[in-house]
Amino acid sequence: MDELKWLLLSVPLLPWLLVLVKADGLGRWLLPLAAVPALLAAGFASGVTQDLPWVLLGLRWGLTDFVAQVWLGVSAWLWLCAGLYSVASVPPGSRHAWRFRVFFLLAMGGNFLLIVAQDMSSFFLGFAAMGLASYGLVVQQRSVTTSRAGRVYMVWTVLGEVALFAGMMLAMGVTGSHYFSQAAGVALPLEAVVLLTLGFGIKLALPGLHVWLPLAHGAAPPAVSALLSGVMVKAGILGLLRFLPTGAETTVWVAEILIGLGLFGAFYAVLLGLLQQAPKVILAYSTMSQLGLMSAFTGLVLLQTEVNAALVLALLWYMVHHALVKGALFLGVGVFKRNLAGWALGLLAVLALVLAGLPFTSGALAKAEIKAVLPADYEWLGAVLLVSTVATSLLMGRFVLSLQRYREQHRAHGHHEAAAVELLAWGLLLEGVFGWYWWVDMPRGEWVDFLPIILGVLLSVPLWWVARLPRVAAGDVPVWLAKLGYRARQRVQMTRCRVE
């Protein structure tokens, strides 16, 4: 048992300690290796807890529930694959290699910490470390575009963390404890619930709070986009489930709003994604759409008078499915842009269909499980899932067309073969996508489920001509409003100068 406690401690601490390693050639291989303790802990440290009473208010780490155990394993696998991919994509001796490794390991440790955290202080520490360190990953490719994306990302990240901290302080004042086990079930004041939802809602890219997401994904390297979309943004779901008591009056009020915003965002993101041209930005809006659905189902969990274990488990499988598939899509885009190979495009097309819910894949499994456990009053969400399958297929068709267009434009300029280690990383992640769900005893879809997929794909064919329309800037409406405000201020200043 002592060995398992040390293993648990190494989950977040080892990535942070490895930051101190200066050897550049060795340091890059530490990126995938740093995730190994988390992978082992997810498999062998179930039920293990470790108290650190001498740190801050007293910290408690552990894997006391199935959600944390599974999510830690999935997150560790994605971090391992992204780290392995980065070994070749960020070669030693480059100007940015050391900085990338430092921020990568800091973000990894923060992500692992918030998963194993059994107290509010540890969760906030991990959440803040992950969010702030990710800024250094977003701006790796130094340019005007990445700098702007980094500034927007940092503003929204800090705003979310301030809201989370304020909500956490109010919650601790009411519950009298910062341990989740002792605070569970205690109703929180509306102010605390709103602040906590705002903080986590920014991470979940709810409509109006999503500006940072398409900008960050468009600027970040493929491995970073895979991590942002695959595991980091879902810290918002984990936080809502950990902090908010189910069924409380104030929680119910906010949960209903969360359901409405989530469903609106699921289709709003598809509409805006269809007007994008860059493959990674299209995937970013797809992430926002899927997060909208997951946010709605999280709100549904919070509405229940007591924890609905079946609904939480179904939500977990949806998170696992999206994390692995979206991570594989982003890494695959990086591989494809290196070699422009037809086989890579074909695999990406298959992954796009899996994300939409292709029968007999993890996408169909996740959606079928959610439909099976919907409460009687919310069975209509099954029809929403069906429509979202068509919408996602439509957006993924647009994504594949954008890749084909990119291939046609750059084929004549030559290309570089993807490194073997990049292909290995992508292959490991693909193995996770197509292998994990065979071990889960759940429905895998029916042949009739092909119909919405086929409909979405057919509708996506005319979207080839949408590329001729003016492109909507990543960040969409809030970005337009910011530009209008900037122009208005310029006109006011010019008017003042003329008067003077």
Gross morphology = globular
Strand content: under 5%
Structural class: mainly alpha
Record field, number of beta strands: 2
* Number of continuous helical runs: 22
Terminal CA distance reads 77 Å
**Percentage of residues in helical conformation:** over 70%
Major sheet summary line: 2 strands, antiparallel
Tell me the number of structural domains.
Answer: 2
What is the H-and-E element order? HHHHEEHHHHHHHHHHHHHHHHHH
**Order of neighbouring strands in the sheet with most strands:** 1-2
**Which regions contain 5 or more consecutive residues with pLDDT less than 50?**
none
| Mean pLDDT over the residues | 83
Using only C-alpha atoms, the radius of gyration works out to 22 Å
Question: Could you characterize what this model shows?
Answer:
It comes from Thiothrix litoralis. This is NADH:quinone oxidoreductase/Mrp antiporter transmembrane domain-containing protein. Pfam families: Proton_antipo_M (PF00361). Keywords: Cell membrane, Membrane, Transmembrane, Transmembrane helix. The protein is mainly alpha-helical and 500 residues long. The chain has two domains: 2-469, no CATH class; 472-500. It has 22 helices and two strands. A two-stranded antiparallel ribbon has the order 1-2. Helix 5 packs parallel to helix 16 (309-339), helix 7 packs antiparallel against helix 8 (144-175) and helix 14 (249-273) runs parallel beside helix 19 (381-410).
